[in-house]
Amino acid sequence: MDGGPQFDVLLRGGRVICPASGIDGVMDIAVQNARIAAVQPSILPTSARQVVDVSGQIVLPGLIDSHGHVYQYVTGRFGMNPDMVGVQSGVTTLVDQGGPSCMTLPGFRHFIAETAQSRVLAFLSAYLVGGLEGHYYPNLYSPDCVDIDATVKAAVANRDLVRGIKAHAEPGGYSRWGMDALKMAKEASRELKLPVYVHLGTLWPEKKGVSVDAAKIVDQVVPMLDPGDVLAHPFTRYPSGFVGPDGKVHPLVFEAIARGVHIDVGRGSHFSFKNARQVIDAGVLPFTVGADCHGYNIKLRTAGKGYQGTFTEEVDQAVAEEKTSPFAAPYGLHHAMNELMALGVKLPDVIRMTTCNAATIMGMSDQIGSLKVGMPADISVMRLLEGKWTLEDGDGVQVKTKRMLQPEFVVRGSKMHDADSPLLPELEKAA
């Protein structure tokens, strides 16, 4: 009779929070054959080959970043290394929003999804060029550069990777093409029966000589959406977000939510504390919390040099001279979570947004976002630190906070990955 250990990994004594299974308490979690094997108040240490004491830490379903840009090199300065913002930052699953297109999806699969230690998914760009240089050249994103049939064909052939379609609804594009490009993206998403993820807030400058009423963009976008579709950047400080010039939330936002449209933070570089407070105070909570990390808003200081593959030599000096606040840049999904908590959103709600809610948007609730027995072993472990910090948004608005989440490590399958990304600030030193 085999008297050897029953489990591969045992996490002991952590506060387990799993909204999908209704757990919030001190539990042990055992992993066997890359799946959750047991979640119990106490599991014998001798039953596992590797035992990790996580007492005083928070154990969660693997965090899901619903808005990333990780098509490294192919999207130029825009694409980050997937594991830097993934497992090394305490995140097990990343969703690249619009990096690959029908033309570049094979490269995304081969060079990114199949090589990363993190799970990498995608919302396929509606545009033939995908997210080259972060959509820096607006003329590449006209309706003439959308191929509905090719996009549908690519998504069907890659159902395991493609979880939706990415499109934009913002003043610059609207001044050039109206809603035509979004309509085509929506046509593709309906044919695929997948959600469309819609960028709100300024992306391109308006066409010369054309002035756009940003509120009218939301007027036209919301009626086009179906249950399960996603509106991104609700807290943007730019026009065409949720908050109008009068400081009130656009009334169609409430109609969209009532019809089953989801809201994703899409934190990015244009997050506004002021607008976030107005939206949350109006009763609108985001459904998911994408960090929107990309090469234009992540600036690493590495001996005075920019992150290779993200910045060109011309901007290295500018990077080196950036202020050294641990909260402006670098940052990641943990930072977007901390900002929500600073705004009064409860920890279990923030965890729900970054676990089971994100899995719902991807149509993958049976595979990720939960610590139920039998699920693949995706686990994030974090510390909840107590102290005093000051958070700052892109407008320089500051908010004080006394609690901050700090990633420690993740378990993917039966393998552990330390949260040692250079994107993670030293919060205890900054307190």
Percent of residues in helices comes to 10-25%
Query: For the report, how would you describe the main beta sheet?
Result: 8 strands, mixed
According to DSSP, the number of beta strands is: 15
Q: What Rg is obtained from the alpha carbons, in whole angstroms? A: 21 Å
The run of helices and strands is: EEEEEEHEHEHEHHEHEHEHHHHHEEEH
Distance between the termini: 54 Å
Shape: globular
Whole-number mean pLDDT: 90
Task: Characterize the structure shown.
- The protein has helices at residues 82-85, 105-113, 148-157, 171-177, 180-192, 214-221, 251-258, 273-281, 316-320, 333-342, 347-354, 356-362, 427-430, and strands spanning 7-18, 23-32, 35-40, 48-53, 58-61, 63-68, 91-97, 119-125, 162-168, 196-199, 230-232, 262-264, 378-392, 398-412, 415-418.
- It is of the alpha/beta class.
- Strands 1, 2, 3, 4, 5, 13, 14 and 15 form an eight-stranded mixed beta sheet that branches. It has a seven-stranded parallel beta sheet with strand order 6-7-8-9-10-11-12, with helices on both faces.
- Helix 3 (148-157) packs parallel to helix 5 and helix 11 runs parallel beside helix 12 (356-362).
- The chain starts with 6 loop residues before the first strand and ends with a helix.
Strands, helices and their partners?
Blueprint: E1 7-18, E2 23-32, E3 35-40, E4 48-53, E5 58-61, E6 63-68, H1 82-85, E7 91-97, H2 105-113, E8 119-125, H3 148-157, E9 162-168, H4 171-177, H5 180-192, E10 196-199, H6 214-221, E11 230-232, H7 251-258, E12 262-264, H8 273-281, H9 316-320, H10 333-342, H11 347-354, H12 356-362, E13 378-392, E14 398-412, E15 415-418, H13 427-430
Parallel strand pairs: 1-4, 1-5, 6-7, 7-8, 8-9, 9-10, 10-11, 11-12
Antiparallel strand pairs: 1-2, 2-3, 5-13, 13-14, 14-15
